[in-house]
């Protein structure tokens, strides 16, 4: 029995997120079916990050156990032949039998892409959030600075969750502008439900002038979801990478 | 009666190209229907470039005549409310009554996007052509240089066309690499059927080492479609801009 770690990329447009659910097709479900088919075993993957409907990934991580004789690094190739075009296994590798994608010490990097122009670019509508109003980059960067470091992010957590500890650490939060495309990059040791999208929704209010940059400090202190901005739409979000410090 | 020029952007994925045809829905058809609905007249647009199925545009151009009282610059806004998300009118403006998008002296700029990596990026699968083999940038640039200027491009024209004059002028042909994404940019005074995609297919053979850069000069001289490389797939192609020297 071997434990296999997969690095998975997908376009989330046509899926009801990662996690198996009764109302629609999910990434986890498609992976389980295709892996089971190719490896001729009943495979159930465990994912690192349960991305929402419409959210994309270039580096989500999943593990599963198998008795297959296919060499670990070849599993990606074999399964990619059977996967739909919007899901790709980037890498497959063996990890220790006790390695778990959610219990390890890790860093996740997300990017949020905004298309800021007078009219949307239809070729980017499924991978960016379109914003037609003017944004103030300096003020957004000032606001972002308040979020870096270890904080209680209770104000930046969807209330439909009952996580006990809402303290997380953000290592990096940068905003970059390349013509119409704005990229907000966030790297941290873990993220609460909708945390990145609520941070982006809040930064957009700062960029528009509805909030001062200093308001973000108050929002953090409030520890109340009502204090923060809206949840930015899913299609702008992409899980870029998960880096594990211990284990694989 | 006013003549209105539209600048049109679209994601070509879900359309059978620009031109109306019996077997599937096209950009031209959707524009005619939505314009007729909003302006309450029977509108028939004339397009500058009949892009193929799966090809995208940020700046295709179309004109039509109308008696509407809606100010010309407001037509874009009014019709965008009724268009599907994958078609956007970027701009609407009045032009002289005799202005025609195909008979004017113009320059067209196309970009072809290649995703060169070991595995495809699923979020870019509909807007790039995935190439897994290594490409030699210097040799592709050497090959491209032979195509710049005025030439008979008969070797770079789909045979299912009976255009009389196959001489065209390419003003610019550059290849740029940004990590995995390669962008081939071509600006010219007109393009034959599939010309950009056949040029790209030929440059890819050079990049892979199947053709020498010098071979491109021979291909031009042959004036025979059989001499050139394959037709690169449509999803990597985007019509960026059409610039008119005379008229609007």
From TrEMBL, chains A, B:
It is an enzyme of class 5 (isomerase). GO terms for molecular function: RNA binding; tRNA pseudouridine(38-40) synthase activity. Keywords: Isomerase, tRNA processing. One of its GO terms (biological process) is tRNA pseudouridine synthesis. It holds the Pfam family PseudoU_synth_1. It catalyses: uridine(38/39/40) in tRNA = pseudouridine(38/39/40) in tRNA. Substrate binds at residue 110. The keyword tRNA processing applies. The active site is at 52 (nucleophile). Its EC number is 5.4.99.12. Residues 8-103, 143-244 form the Pseudouridine synthase I TruA alpha/beta domain. NCBIfam families: hisT_truA. Formation of pseudouridine at positions 38, 39 and 40 in the anticodon stem and loop of transfer RNAs. Belongs to the tRNA pseudouridine synthase TruA family. Homodimer. This is tRNA pseudouridine synthase A. It comes from Mediterraneibacter hominis. The lineage of its organism: Bacteria, Bacillati, Bacillota, Clostridia, Lachnospirales.
């Amino acid at each position: 029995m071997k434990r296999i770690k997969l690095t998975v990329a997908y376009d989330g447009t046509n899926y009801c997120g990662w996690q198996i659910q009764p109302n629609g097709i999910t990434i986890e479900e498609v992976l389980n079916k295709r892996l089971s088919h190719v490896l001729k075993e009943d495979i159930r993957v465990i994912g690192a990050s349960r991305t929402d409907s419409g959210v994309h990934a270039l580096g989500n991580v999943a593990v599963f156990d198998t008795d297959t004789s296919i060499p670990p690094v070849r599993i990606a190739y074999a399964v990619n032949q059977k996967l739909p075009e919007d899901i790709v296994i980037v890498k497959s590798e063996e990890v220790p039998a006790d390695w778990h994608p959610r219990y390890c010490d890790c860093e996740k990097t997300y990017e949020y892409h905004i298309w800021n122009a007078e009219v949307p670019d239809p070729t980017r509508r499924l991978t960016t959030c379109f914003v037609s109003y003017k944004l103030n980059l300096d003020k957004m960067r000032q606001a972002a600075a308040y979020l870096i470091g270890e904080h209680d992010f209770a104000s930046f957590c969807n209330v439909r969750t009952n996580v006990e500890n809402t303290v997380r650490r953000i290592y990096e939060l940068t905003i970059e502008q390349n013509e119409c495309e704005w990229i907000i990059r966030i790297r941290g040791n873990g993220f609460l439900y909708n945390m990145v999208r609520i941070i982006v929704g809040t930064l957009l209010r700062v960029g528009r002038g509805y909030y001062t940059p200093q308001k973000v400090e108050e929002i953090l202190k409030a520890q109340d979801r009502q204090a923060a901005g809206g949840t930015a739409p899913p299609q702008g979000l992409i899980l870029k990478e998960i880096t594990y410090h211990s284990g694989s």
